[in-house]
Amino acid sequence: MNKDNKRMLYKRPEGLTDKVMHYCAGCGHSLAHKVLAEVLDELEVREKTVGVAPVGCAVFAYHYLKCDISEAAHGRAAAVATGIKRALPDRIVFSYQGDGDLAAIGLAETVHAANRGENITVIFVNNTVYGMTGGQMAPTTLNGQHTATCPSGRDPAGMGHPLRVCELINTLEAPYYIERVALDGVGGVLRMKKALHKAFSVQIAGKGYSLVEILSPCPTYFRMTASESLKFVNREMRDCFPVRVFRDQGTPQNA
Amino acid sequence: MLERIIIAGAGGQGSVLLGKLMALTAMDIFPHITFFPAYGAEVRGGASHCQVVMSSTEIASPCAEQADALILMNQHDAAGFVAQLAPKGLAVVNSSLCHIRQVPRGRRLVSIPASAMADQLGSPRSANIVMLGALLRHKPLFSMAAAEQTIRKLPSGAPGMLEINLRALQAGHQAAG
Amino acid sequence: MTGNEALAEGAIRAGCQCYFGYPITPQNELTAYMSAQMPARGRVFIQSESELAAISMVFGAAAAGARAMTTSSSPGISLMQEGLSYLAGARLPAVVVNVQRGGPGLGSIDPAQGDYFQSVKSGGHGDYHMIVLAPTSVQEMHDLTIHAFRLADCYRVPVMVLADGRIGQMMEPIRLHEGPPPPAPRKPWALTGAAGRDPNCVRSLLVGEGELEQHNYVLQDCYRHIRRKEIMYHEKCVSDCETLLVAWGTCARLARGVVDLARAKGKRVGLLQPTTLWPFPEQRLRRLAARVKNLLVVEMNCGQMLEDVQRLAEGRAPVHFKGYPGGRVPTETEILRAVMALRPPRSVPRRKTGKRK
Ligand SMILES: Cc1ncc(C[n+]2csc(CCOP(=O)(O)OP(=O)(O)O)c2C)c(N)n1
Fold first, then answer.
1. Is residue A179 part of a domain?
2. Residue B10 pairs with which residues in a beta bridge?
3. Predicted TM-score (pTM) of this structure
C-alpha cells in the first residue's frame, strides 16, 4: 500500500516494452506475450532468458519482450533453440511458434527436439490459420473451416485432418511436460499462466522438454468479431483440441 | 495523355477498391492502365494506399512520382501525399477526416465531407464513392455513366448497397460543384 | 488482373495438371487462385507443408509425366534448391516461379532482384542450368509462364519464371492466351507402370564407371542446344545509341521510360532487356558493347547481372552500375539522373568494332 491508500492491482509487466503491439484487436498473441513476460519476471529469469521468435505474426516479438531474442528461419525455431541451449546450458531458452511454423514446415525440427528431450520450453500458439501471410490453411485448420487456400472449407479428403500436436509429441519417450490451454476467457488466461509457470520451472529444474499449446483467437482470419472468435476457440477449437495436461513428470496423463 | 492518381486512406476505407474501380472503368478509354496497391506486413487497420496510372502510351512505372489527382480519405501522411501533387494537380480531400486546407500554388483543392455524407446516405463505407463523384466533377477521367456501370458490376455486398453507392456517386458529384 | 493471377491463369491455360505451393508474400494471390481454380477443373492442388515438400511433390508429378508447377518467393526458393538440383539431374521438366522479395534472410516483402545469381548460376549443387525467364509486365507474367511449360517439356529441364513483388502485385489489363496449350511431347521415360514395356527409372545417382561423366555431357549438350535456340531479349532505340542501358524485370520496364526521357533531353540512350537471363543474350551484348560509349546496368540488387555484363563487354566500353538493394524500386528520375551524369570515356582506348564474335 502506498500513502494514498491505493493498491496496485494491475500494471504492465516489467518484461514488456512500452511499444504498442501491432497485433490485430482480439488477437491472442498480445495476451500470450504479456503473460509470458509476467512469468519470466515472477520466476526471476528474464535476464538469463533467450527466446526464439518464429516466422509468423509473432516475428516482431523482440519489439515487445525485454529479453534476448533470435529470429529463426521459418519452422526452424526448435533447432535454433537447441543450438542456443546446448551452447549455454544454464540459460533459459524458449521458442515461440505459430501452427504453420511449428506444425507444417517445422514439424521435423519440432519432433526431433522433443524426441531428444532438449531442455527447452516450446510455446505453441495455435490459431488454426497462417495469420502473417493472409489467413491460409494451417495444419491445425478445423475440418470445414474456410481459409484463403481452402475456400470451400477444409476437406479432410486430400487436405488431411487437423493435426494434434500435443497428442503427437506425447507419443515420444523424452518429453517431460505437455499441456494444452485455451485463450477463451479469463479462466483460460489464468490457466495459460499456470502452464507457462510450470513449463519454465521444469526447464529451470533441468528436467527437460516442455510444450505448452495455446488455442488462440485470430478474429481477422476467422472473419469474426473478437467476442465471436473467443466463442469459436471455446467451442469448435476445444472440441477438436481437448484442453488438458498430457504429460507431467515425464509420464503420460490420463484424459 | 497521362493521368496519375494516388488514393490514400486507412485500411477499411475502400481506397484500394476505389482504385480498382477507377482502373476498370478507364480500361475502355485508355490503352494503358496500371494499378498498384501498397502491400505490407501489417495489412489491417494501418494506412493503405494505391496508385492508378492511365496513359495513351506505354507505362514505365505503376508508381507515379507525381500525382495528377490525389484522393485523400484520411489524415495519414496527408502532407506527404500533397507534396507529390504535380503542377495543375487536383487534390480531393475527405474533410470529415482530413484537415488539409490548402495545397501548393498552381494546384487545386476540393474538400467535401465524404464520410459524413456517406453516413447520412446510410453507409459509411460509401465515402470512397462520394470521393469519386467529386473527383469526376473536376476531372472527367471518364463519364459518370461509365462509373455507374462499373459500380453496378461490383460484387453485391449488403442489400441496398448498390443503391446507396449510386446515390453516393451523385451526391459527391453535386457537392463538389 | 494482378501479375500473380495472370501467371496462375497462364499455368492453367498451359495445361498445368499439378500445382503444389506453400504460402509466402508477395505471391499469395497465386496460391489462392490455384486453390480455387485447379480443383474446379479436376486438377491437383496441394498446399504443401513446406517448400522442400512442394518441390519434391513437383518432382514426383513430373516423374509421372504430368505438367507440374510450384511457386514461391525468395526464402522459399532457397529451400527448393535441393529439389531443383534433383530435377535437373533426373532430367525432369518443371516450372518454378520466384516472385522475388528483399533478402538476405527474411529481408522484406518488398520487390527486389537479389536472386539473379541463385537463379542464373544455379543455386543447388552440381553442374546444371535452369532456363530463367524475366517478365516485365502482367502480360508477360502470363505469356512467359505458358512459354516456360513449352520449354520445360521440350528440353526436360526445370524452367524458372523470375518475377518480383512489384510485377506480382500490379494490375494491368491483358489478353489471355486463347489457343490450345503447348503440345505435350511423348514422355517414354515417365513412370506410368511398366505394363508391356521394360521398367523405367528416374534417377540422378549414377555410380557406374564413367556413367556420371557421360550423363553430364548429355546435360551440357542439352544446354548448348538451349543456348543456340532459346535466347530472347527486347531492345529499344539501340541502333544509334551511345549509352546502352542493360536491365531486366521491373528495372527494364523503368528503363524503357528512361530511354524516352533521356532522348527528350537529347541524349542518345538505348536499352537491352534480356528476357532469358539464362541463356543470356551474350552475342548481342558483345556486339552492342563494341558500338557504344557507355554501358549502364540497373538492378534492384548490389550488382549481379552486372558481373555477366562486365564479363561480356570485355572492356570494350566502361560498364557503370546503379543498384537499389533495399527492397525499394527506384524512380525513373533517379535512373535518368544516373544516365545524364555519364560522360563519354576518355582514357579507355576504343577497339575496332565488329571483328570479334
Ligand atoms: C521459407 C519460408 N516460407 C514461407 C514464408 C512465409 N511465411 C511467413 S509467416 C508464415 C506463416 C505463419 O503462420 P503461423 O505459423 O500459423 O503463425 P501466425 O502468423 O498465425 O501467428 C509464412 C508461410 C517464409 N517467411 N519463409
1. yes
2. B47
3. 0.93
